């Protein structure tokens, strides 16, 4: 069998109908073992991976035995039974997923429930609540508009990520969801795909020209709203799906004008949206989706009242809530927003992405700057483009100026005091590689997808472990390796027990000053009702 990387594909049939075996020991059994197709290569008709082989019974491009069986099962379901040479059937326990038509109302082709459970187990997808929708193993098995499938393919989304495999079909059944999955694992498309699909269908089936908003997405920062809106436009190209960005710092008149001209989706920050809704008569009675991205941030003090004010103006929409860090309190609050909510979690919750290598450095505050410049001047440790997190706007301005003066590298700071024009320009120049370092406060702490960034330096620890998880999550997208350097000292003592646990469970070295610190013994300040906790050695 030729190497799968050869220029011309292996034409040998996977199996011949006379039962004669092909050179099977080298054939890939599962689609997971097959690589992604590169531009110009044939794609497996089932999963979209490299179509290394040709199915000898249908002449289709196929990536593995598993996908061949899936293909033949589909044919078997739609025509007279096709005899599979019994010796060749993959053993029942094998993770070969047969897709067959189902009567589930989402219209998706779903796995039989026993195999759905097998797939969930394999991918650590946990579901709590009543859910009929099985995970999908390809976008095409979700009955999505053809144009949306083409846009997904054009965006390079050949296969759904684990969170998308379950959250997309679940959302298409009309269920409200609370979803947690690692940073960088594809949560955004998990809610955008069902929204674009359903809203485009509503518009296509509608007889009136009236176009009141059908979906609202709220996020905690302007940068994340901009990113989510861009993502939605990309997926909705060629479909009757217009968006409006409603964030502070931009002229409100333009935002109102756009909505009144007819949009399907509003993406905004809560404060500006409330401003707009109170000053202008915008009808939200057609809204069918209400999305809270970074839901734990959206339901904490400061945002929660505004979020609930907007939610109460709607007529019981489907609620989709997402984050990489969801606590039991957030789950309780979220569950009170919608009946029959389904909770989906992928992997281990409230953990940094495994793809981010953490390097914790113990350094006194007065020495942090020197240590930081040692890293910036070291060819071994400095891997631009680098995102640096600090605790204040002034700190961001001072540090970025110091970097420019000391190293000559053009460095900019980004925070809430800068205008939207400046913030957009800084993000653009960072993302296209014009500037190697950006120093940021929390405005870039969550959700933003900084493709190309593989190194984050947490100069000042944030106020909570969950913000720390989101910040270092910028260093890895979709499982790519990244590094996070974090400066620690006694000033961060309130987070020591959780930090030690996070570092240990991620396999990162724990500085001995941290372990030996008297604040790290696992005893929390014994407040009312709190018990002293012995720290396991
Ligand atoms: N199915 C897919 N195939 C290929 N790339 C994908 C897929 N889904 C998402 N991506 C890409 O992976 C990156 C991370 O996706 P996304 O930003 O949605 O992650 P996230 O889970 O929302 O992260 P965070 O928790 O940090 O907000 C993005 O660049 C996105 O375009």
UniProtKB/TrEMBL annotation:
<dbReference type="GO" id="GO:0003723">
    <property type="term" value="F:RNA binding"/>
</dbReference>
<keyword id="KW-0347">Helicase</keyword>
<comment type="similarity">
    <text>Belongs to the DEAD box helicase family. DDX59 subfamily.</text>
</comment>
<dbReference type="Pfam" id="PF00271">
    <property type="entry name" value="Helicase_C"/>
</dbReference>
<dbReference type="Pfam" id="PF04438">
    <property type="entry name" value="zf-HIT"/>
</dbReference>
<dbReference type="InterPro" id="IPR014001">
    <property type="entry name" value="Helicase_ATP-bd"/>
</dbReference>
<dbReference type="InterPro" id="IPR007529">
    <property type="entry name" value="Znf_HIT"/>
</dbReference>
<keyword id="KW-0067">ATP-binding</keyword>
<dbReference type="GO" id="GO:0005524">
    <property type="term" value="F:ATP binding"/>
</dbReference>
<dbReference type="GO" id="GO:0003724">
    <property type="term" value="F:RNA helicase activity"/>
</dbReference>
<keyword id="KW-0378">Hydrolase</keyword>
<dbReference type="GO" id="GO:0016787">
    <property type="term" value="F:hydrolase activity"/>
</dbReference>
<feature type="domain" description="Helicase C-terminal">
    <location>
        <begin position="355"/>
        <end position="518"/>
    </location>
</feature>
<dbReference type="InterPro" id="IPR014014">
    <property type="entry name" value="RNA_helicase_DEAD_Q_motif"/>
</dbReference>
<feature type="short sequence motif" description="Q motif">
    <location>
        <begin position="137"/>
        <end position="165"/>
    </location>
</feature>
<dbReference type="Pfam" id="PF00270">
    <property type="entry name" value="DEAD"/>
</dbReference>
<dbReference type="InterPro" id="IPR027417">
    <property type="entry name" value="P-loop_NTPase"/>
</dbReference>
<keyword id="KW-0547">Nucleotide-binding</keyword>
<keyword id="KW-0863">Zinc-finger</keyword>
<dbReference type="InterPro" id="IPR011545">
    <property type="entry name" value="DEAD/DEAH_box_helicase_dom"/>
</dbReference>
<feature type="domain" description="Helicase ATP-binding">
    <location>
        <begin position="168"/>
        <end position="344"/>
    </location>
</feature>
<keyword id="KW-0862">Zinc</keyword>
<dbReference type="GO" id="GO:0008270">
    <property type="term" value="F:zinc ion binding"/>
</dbReference>
<feature type="domain" description="DEAD-box RNA helicase Q">
    <location>
        <begin position="137"/>
        <end position="165"/>
    </location>
</feature>
<protein>
    <recommendedName>
        <fullName>DEAD-box ATP-dependent RNA helicase 41</fullName>
        <ecNumber>3.6.4.13</ecNumber>
    </recommendedName>
</protein>
<dbReference type="InterPro" id="IPR001650">
    <property type="entry name" value="Helicase_C-like"/>
</dbReference>
<keyword id="KW-0694">RNA-binding</keyword>
<keyword id="KW-0479">Metal-binding</keyword>
